[in-house]
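Continuing from yesterday's entry. The apo prediction looked reasonable, so today I'm repeating it with zinc ion included to see how the binding region is handled. Same sequence as before; SMILES copied from the compound registry.
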Amino acid sequence: MKTNRHNLRVALYGRFSTSRQNAASSADQLRAGEKYATQHGWTVVARFTDDAISGAYEHGRAGLQELKQQAMLGQFDVVVVESVDRLGRNVSEVTALYRRLKFHGIEVHTYTSGKQTDLVIAIMSSVAEAQLEEIAHKTRRGAKANILKKRSAGGRAYGYVSDPKLTADGKLDKGHQKICPEEAEIVRRIFEEYAIGKSPIEIARKLNLEGVPGPRRPRKKGEIQVPGCSQWQVITILGHASRGTGILHNELYRGWRVWNQRMYLKNPDTGKRVARQNPEEDIERIEDQDLRIVTEEQWNAVRKREAVIRANMKKRASGQEHNFRDARRPTSFLSGIIKCAACGGNVGLVLRDRWGCLGHHRGTNCTNNRTKRRDVVEQRILSGLIDRLVTGESIEIALQAYNEECQALYAQWLRQSDAGREKLASIDAQINNIMKAIEFAPDVSVLASRLTELSKERKALAEAIKPVPAPMPNLQHDFSALFHERVKNLGAVIGDPDHGREASDKLRSLIQAVEFRPGQARGEVSLTLVGDMAGILALAAGNDNLEVMTEAVVCPRNQM
Ligand SMILES: [Zn+2]
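Holo prediction written out below.
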């Protein structure tokens, strides 16, 4: 810290956050900071801003990063912000940055309350941390109280319906459940069939064939659920033993409510919620025999069968070179691209090294039972790409379409940005007029609100106007041979540990879809390859920057 307090160097940092009410724009924050610095006779030497939308973790904070770097280089003595919470996304980030700045002898000031001290930061973080704990505690306590009152904590399990009860004060309490006889029958059947050795696939397939509706999935936000269309799947029945999921592991069926099996944590890097298994001692169980569906014998028979399967798997794993369940699933350049022609679902690697309809193998109604060896499928698709998909003529047509589309797109860009700039100029003129009027007007409140409106509009518009890219050169016509060469090379390096991944990505970009259709004869599979001309042209041109090829690009799709 400089001893001369009259000539400190100031860095301003502003971050706009939509989560705040009456949020000041980052430019406004900088202006206020500037004023604060001037009042203290300091010199502003650096300005940093981030206009990321609050809560959107993927938006980097380039401004804040830059501030950190310059702080380490000793470029300034004071950081002025609107409030300390601008300095990070959460308390620990703010505290960390504050400590770092302090270490470099840099003070943090807010223009509303001046210099921030260790005490202020400490109080701020302890208050926030305590609040978080309080909230977590309350949620847990609430769930536990519900269980104690024999109400359901969380969602409804298969086999039960909600059973609203009138409370003493005449209100309807919807937290209670009772057994649904039809569904309970299915639960018992699943337990019995599994215990006598039927596989979850068999069980699921039979239920689906009989038209028994499966458990409702928890609805995703905005998703409309169609009644009666939920199918039984292996995962619904089997779940994960360790997590207590799946019909076969739900302890409610033996009359025990289980609570606090999992906790949800927010990943600080991505902001996503992830489930973690709680240790056994934290899991709480409360008996409620009114809800028992399977007998203790049925429950134990399933446990016995599971133990047998586990033992068999272990034996197989130790006897074989690798255990296919544990081995990392191989990825293929076709993963996620091949679709089942019968059900429209994904075709993936099933049975070790064969492609097949995932729906069929997970027990849905799909009848497509064909599988095909992985290398055969990949070879067919590769040779299809090389030999049949790209003929000289199809390249010609695609090229022409591409070049025309590029020109049209470019013209559209020009038109849009011209219109945008005109509008921007008109807003600027209006803002200027208002600024002039404010000097003379006795009551500026009306003008001020109009000014705010215009500024907002201007900001949005300025963001919408993208710089016009350089016109795209037309592609040349002679790359059919080049394309063949490149695909061949990609095919050759696919298994290569160093470049396989990249080659695989490139190949994927050439394929729009592959249809996996059961053929006439037993075991026969017909594959339909739909090439993506955008990817094909990009690869052939040896140019990865052909990102302009959007959905809008109409081009011939070739089939084989
Ligand atoms: Zn299928």
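Comparison notes:
- Confidence is low (pLDDT under 50) at residues 54-59, 321-330, 543-560.
- Residues 392-440 form the longest helix (49 residues).
Will overlay with the apo model tomorrow.
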